[in-house]
């Protein structure tokens, strides 16, 4: 009997999370990004898959999360969906070289999205690519990408997220400049 109630309770929690996580993600984007920001449709199928994957990450289930991110990639039908999926697929790569490939894919897709709002994600994408190059000891490429990221920091929000990305870029430039 207790198992039934726990199972029912767990299912209710999961259903609530699947319903509200995309809405929460959109609220975060609306409230913590600059006036120019990329709109994320919480009802979009690919965004829902990525949201479910993030939930699985939070539950300590990286393999299941990775499978959903790959499913999102496979089912993406446009450049924006492909960009979002590639960003999440990159996070689950086993090697730095594979992560770099997916981070570069995400960046190239983002660069193909029209509008200024997408420029707010460039610093983070360049930071990810630069860190991969740094880890692979490609210091010239790392510095180049850190500097490219820095050139787009004016599009970041002036909040904790924006400050974290700025600090990551500046710390990266400092690290590779002294090596």
Describe the structure.
This protein is mostly helical and 179 residues long. The protein folds into 2 domains: 113 residues, no CATH class; 65 residues. The chain is built from 8 helices and no strands. The longest helix has 31 residues.
Q: What's this, in brief?
A:
This protein is mainly alpha-helical. Helices cover 74% and strands 0% of the residues.
SSE layout:
Elements: H1 2-32, H2 45-58, H3 62-75, H4 79-90, H5 96-111, H6 122-135, H7 139-151, H8 160-178
Write a concise keyword list for the protein shown above.
179 residues, mainly alpha, 8 helices, disordered N terminus
Q: From the alpha-carbon coordinates, what is the Rg to the nearest angstrom?
A: 18 Å
Helix content: over 70%
Mean pLDDT: 86
Q: What is the number of strand segments?
A: 0
Shape: globular
Outline the low-pLDDT stretches: 1-11, 27-37
Largest sheet: none
Strand content: under 5%
How many alpha or pi helices? 8
C-alpha end-to-end distance: 63 Å
Helix/strand order: HHHHHHHH
Q: Structural class, from helix and strand content? A: mainly alpha
- Summed up, the domain count is 2
């Amino acid at each position: 009997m207790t198992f039934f109630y726990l199972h029912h309770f767990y299912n209710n929690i999961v259903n609530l999370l699947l319903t509200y996580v995309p809405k929460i993600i959109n609220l975060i984007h609306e409230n913590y990004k600059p006036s120019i920001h990329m709109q994320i449709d919480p009802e979009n199928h690919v965004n829902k898959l990525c949201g479910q994957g993030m939930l699985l990450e939070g539950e300590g289930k990286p393999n299941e999360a990775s499978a959903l991110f790959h499913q999102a990639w496979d089912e993406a039908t446009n450049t924006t969906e492909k960009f979002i999926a590639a960003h999440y697929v990159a996070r689950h790569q086993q090697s730095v070289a594979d992560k770099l490939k997916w981070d570069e894919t995400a960046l190239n897709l983002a660069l193909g999205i029209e509008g200024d709002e997408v420029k707010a994600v460039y610093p983070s994408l360049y930071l990810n690519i630069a860190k991969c190059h740094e880890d692979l000891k490609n210091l010239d490429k790392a510095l180049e990408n850190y500097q490219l990221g820095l050139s787009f920091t004016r599009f970041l929000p002036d909040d904790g997220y924006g400050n974290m990305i700025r600090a990551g870029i500046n710390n990266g430039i400092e690290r590779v400049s002294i090596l």
